[in-house]
Structure formats: C-alpha cells, structure tokens
Amino acid sequence: MEVTNKLVKGGEFIIKETSAQGVFTPADFSEEQNMMHQTALDFVDKEVSPLLDRLDNHEEGLMRGLMEKAGQLGLFGVSIPEQFGGLDMDFTTSLRVTEGVGGGHSFPVAFAAHTGIAMLPILYFGNEEQKAKYLPGLTSGELMGAYCLTEPGSGSDALGAKTKAMPTEDGGYVLNGQKMWITNGGFADVFIVFAQVDGDKFTGFIVDRDTPGLSLGNEEHKMGIKGSSTRQVFLSDVKVGKDAVLGEIGKGHLIAFNILNIGRIKLAAACLGATKMAATLSVKYANERVQFKMPIAKFGAIKYKLAQQAIRIYAVESAIYRAGMDIARMEQELLSQGQSHNEALLGAAREFAVECAILKVEGSEVLDYVVDEGVQVYGGYGFSADYPMDRAYRDSRINRIFEGTNEINRMLAVDMILKKAMKGELDLMGPAQAVQAELMAIPDFNTEEETGLFAAEKKTLGKLKKAILMVAGTAVQKYMNSLAKEQEVLMNIADMAIKVYTAESTLLRVEKEAAAQGEEAVSTQIDIARVYLYDTVDQVNKFGKDALASMTEGDEQKLLAMGLKRFTKADLYNAKEARRRIADKLIAANEYVY
C-alpha cells in the first residue's frame, strides 16, 4: 500500500498508508493553542460549573449572561477576522477552544450554536454589508444568534422544509412557517432562517428578532441539556427586505451542508472535552469509593472500565486533531491557489467531509460510552441526581442526533467516498481490483519478520483496509445505483471505515510521539494503540460478515468469507494486562492523564 507524507485528500486513508511524521498530534499544539484551550477550561470551571443547577432551571438571563462573558473573553472570535473584532486564529485553535468548553454541559450547546451554525453562515456566505452589520456584535457577545433549519415535518430531510418565502413587489420577501428545536431561540437577536422561495428554491435569510411576525414557543422540556434554550420559532407574515437574503436564491443547501461539515468535527471536539471530564470523575470516584475494605479502583472489573474509557478517548482525540490539521493544511493550499479565506476553509472542510462525518459519529458515541460506564462506576450513586454522572449521562444523548443523526452520517460517509471515486477524485477502483485479484490468488505465507514499532500492527491495518475495499466493492457490484436503499449494508461499511480510521490515527500518533520521546516514555500509550487495534480487528470482521451475509450466497459467499477471515486475522494479545497498566496510570494520577 502506498505511503504518503504529502498533502492528503479526504477519504484517502482507505487506500493509502500515512507517514507518522506527517500527522498532527496533540503533542504538536502550539503555546497559543494550549493557552486558548486553558482559557476555555478556566471559564467553564469558574463561571459555568457553579451555575449548572440554576442554568437547568432556566433562570432568566443566566445563560445569556454567560455567553456575553465568553464573548468579552474573545472565545466567540477565534475564527473571525480581525476586521470584525475577531482573533483570526487557525482551525486547530478553534477545535481546541471547542474542546475546552465541552465539559460545560448545556453551555457548549449554546456556544456551538452561536459560534458555528449562527455566525459562520454570515461569515462565509454573507455579503460585505451583512458581515459589517452583524459579525462585530455576534463576535463581542452583544448580539446572540440562532439557526432555524429543522421543522416539525423535516428533520433529516432538511431540504423538505415547508416554510415559504413569497417575493413582494419591492424586492423583499414575506416568510411564513414554523421552525422547531431552535437552540438559543429564547435569547437570540439574529436568526438564520431557511425557506422555500417560489415553492422550491431553498434559500437562507437573516431575520432580526424584533421583526414583526416572528414569535417564539415556550421552552421545550428536554431529557438533557436542560440549561440550553430550545424553542419553536413561528413566522407569520414576517416581512424582510432583499438585503436579508443570505447567499443566492435557491442555494440555501450550500449554506446548510457546508456549515454542517465544520459543525460535525467541532461537535466531536466538544464531545471530547466532555469525555475527559467524565473520565476524571470516574477515576476520582473509583479511588474514593471503598468496598470490601479497599477502593473499588483496585478491582479488575473497574480497571477495565477506566481503561476502556481512556482508550476510546485517546483514540478519538487522535483522529479529531489528525483530521483538523488535514483541513487546516488544505485550507492553506487553497489560499495559496488564490482562493479567499472563506472559500478556502469551506473547500477544505468539504474535501474532508468524510472524516467530519466519521468523527461526528465516533465522538458522540465515545461520549455515550464514557458516561454510561461512568454511571456504572458510581453504582447506585450514578443514578442519583445529586451526583454529577446523572447530568453527564442525560446531556450526552443529544449528540447522536445533533448535526445530522449518526445513521445519516454513517450513510453519508460511504456515499461521499463512492462519489469521490466516481468523479475520479479518489482511486478506489485500482485498489479494489487488486484486492479481488488477491482473493483469487494463493495466499502469501511469507513469514519474514517485521521490524520497528507497530510494524505488525501496520500490516494488520493494511489488511483491514483491504476488508473495507472487498466489502464495499462487492456492495457496489451487487446493488449498483440502488445501493442507497441498502442502508444496513452502508452502515456496516461505514462502521468498518470509522474503526479503521480511528485505529490508524491512534497508531500514527503514538508512533510519532514514541520517536520523539522514546518508547518507554509512552509505554501506556503503546498499550492504548494496541488494545484499540486488537478490538478493531474483531469489530471489522463482524461488520464485514453482516454485510457479506446479506448480499451474497453459495460459492461467492464462501470465497468472500475466506477473504474476510484472511484480512481480519491477528495474533492473540494480552489486552487484560495492557488495560490494567493503562488504568493504573489513571488511578495514580487520580484523573484522565492521556
């Protein structure tokens, strides 16, 4: 498999092996990036955490007040140009800040809605007048924003919105419709609203809160993120001028989908921050809770849980910042080609839309896993609303629905990979045909000893990628243009890709850090990478078997099953002892330390 150390393309990880030295890892964070992260952490610790109960009770003005403070600190302006009052920092820094606020329960929901889906449409698609009018206030915290896409009858099918925008004689529009689940709805000053012009031209509009005809429903009663404001927005003969049109008539889908690419990886970063907080709570409680005359942290069953939390957190963190820097590097490449700042970042995020979708899924599901096991570590106290795991557990669940459900994102990831292949942007055909030829050939029993850290693991990863190509290639051959209807198969393939991308990211991170610090210094990180890959092999095998069993039979099925077995074979590994070493380091530090 080809090894690349140059500028990579989105989805390319399936067909190429990446050099560890070319991958960005958390060890590469700059002093400025760490400083901004610490600022966000301190804000959550000192300003947000003491108010969580009051926020959940929707104390009037409390969330808005916190948001205004965050704006004054500069946290809203990380990605905003200096001319609009921002700090104009790079994409990785914005991810770092998002991670920093991630442990703030309802606060990062309000924060992400404002700095992401409310501000970025104006930054990237607004004209100069719109930017000058809104961005300074949104950046400073003087103005608050909300994003109105979802409707009672259109969630995942966003383009099926029924809200109408009827043109008027003076060039303006009259908006009528209903929007649902609008974050920040209760205190927003500016709404990004999507509506159908002439019945079928999906278009974005900027609507001010005080526009006659715009009204709000009551606060929704939610399972979690109770402190965030979530309301319906009603539009009854809302008259706006032509200067309210965001972007072009009929091109609202470009706004919605491009902003979602950025939103997905940022959601993963926010989930990452929450996982680290929950893991630290788990370790602290396990050290404090005494049963059978010893802290429960000393028991193997609890060590397993603490270690698995850390393994999955470390792995998804590796993938998030690998992809984040890939986006940043592509942005710089597009800037060097003469594209504007806005075009470059949108283009870079679009190039890595596959990875953004993958990370949204994995980030949200890792958080769900970590808080669920956190409740289990706490035992009966985990089920009590007087202990912190209650809120963490409830607040986690929404992330698998936000920014496109995880089911939609799984299918989208595979669909985008296949479309890139059909457009000639990604050469899947050559590697897929090579895998088919390998299936028909006599297996290579060459047992030549590999050398170097992770040499065997890299060989295993290469075979897992062949498994993806084999299963995906079979699906394309079987279903052709009707593959989109075979959602279960698409999700099987997506899960194979998610696990392989995350496992590879983890190996590359540890390999790079071992080269810099020495293997002994990162010995437990080596354990993390090996355990994660060990688990991944069986998971890829299961997803692959499910897909093949559903679309093949007879001799073809036997041949492909043999191939899958060959590609998902790995030596036994003592994961129990590795997990104990990982957990012991957490227990000694009394916090998440990786």
Would you give an account of this structure?
There is one protein chain. The protein is of the alpha/beta class and 594 residues long. It folds into four domains: 28-144, Orthogonal Bundle (Butyryl-Coa Dehydrogenase, subunit A, domain 1); 146-250, Beta Barrel (Butyryl-CoA Dehydrogenase, subunit A, domain 2); 253-408, Butyryl-CoA Dehydrogenase, subunit A, domain 3 (Up-down Bundle), CATH 1.20.140; 427-444 and 451-589, Up-down Bundle (Butyryl-CoA Dehydrogenase, subunit A, domain 3). It has 19 helices and twelve strands. Strands 3, 4, 5, 6, 7, 8, 9 and 10 form an eight-stranded mixed sheet that branches. Strands 1-2 form a two-stranded parallel sheet. Strands 11-12 form a two-stranded antiparallel sheet. It starts with a strand and ends in a 5-residue tail after the last helix.
Write the layout of secondary structure elements.
Elements: E1 3-4, E2 17-18, H1 31-48, H2 52-56, H3 62-73, H4 91-101, H5 107-118, H6 120-125, H7 128-140, E3 145-148, E4 164-167, E5 173-183, E6 190-197, E7 201-208, E8 214-216, E9 230-240, E10 245-246, H8 252-288, E11 290-291, E12 294-295, H9 300-336, H10 341-351, H11 353-378, H12 388-396, H13 406-422, H14 429-440, H15 455-479, H16 487-517, H17 523-551, H18 554-567, H19 575-589
Parallel strand pairs: 1-2, 3-6, 4-6
Antiparallel strand pairs: 4-5, 5-9, 6-7, 7-10, 8-9, 11-12
